[in-house]
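Subject: design request, 141 residues
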């Protein structure tokens, strides 16, 4: 009886060992159940607006920050995330969230270096764009 079981044992062992090999050979473009691959969903971009400070290119590398004025206390506060260096063309641009459209007043401050206490320039007050896809440009040339 032991001689009769050897062929069956060989067939079972061969089948078990070849299953991973067979599954690796299946096309990678099919998903379980034979469904076609679906394209990756493109994320929906929540369009806001922009604010831009336009300076002479001699301000390249200067540090800028945007401040918001509390209308009750008239105190100015730095806006987190709206600070950085002037680019080579003399501009700084920040994205405005749709929930912030139309709010204000704001102002730009320009410093020679990050961490300086006194700005070399402060813009006039401005409000954020009132609609999506608009840009408020402050030209200090």
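Subject: RE: design request

Done. Sequence follows.
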């Amino acid at each position: 009886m032991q001689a009769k079981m050897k062929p069956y044992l060989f067939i079972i062992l061969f089948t078990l060992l070849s299953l991973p090999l067979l599954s690796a050979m299946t096309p990678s473009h099919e998903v379980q159940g034979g469904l076609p691959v679906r394209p990756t969903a493109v994320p929906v971009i929540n369009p806001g607006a922009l604010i831009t400070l336009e300076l002479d290119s001699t301000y390249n590398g200067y540090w800028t920050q945007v401040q918001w004025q509390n209308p009750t206390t008239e105190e100015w506060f730095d806006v987190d995330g709206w600070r950085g260096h002037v680019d080579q063309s003399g501009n700084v641009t920040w994205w405005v969230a749709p929930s912030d459209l139309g709010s204000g007043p704001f102002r730009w401050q320009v410093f020679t270096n990050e961490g300086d206490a006194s700005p070399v320039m402060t813009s006039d007050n401005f409000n954020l764009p009132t609609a999506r896809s608009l840009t408020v440009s402050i030209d200090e040339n």
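The beta strands are 30-31, 35-36, 49-54, 63-69, 76-85, 91-96, 106-111, 121-122, 135-139.
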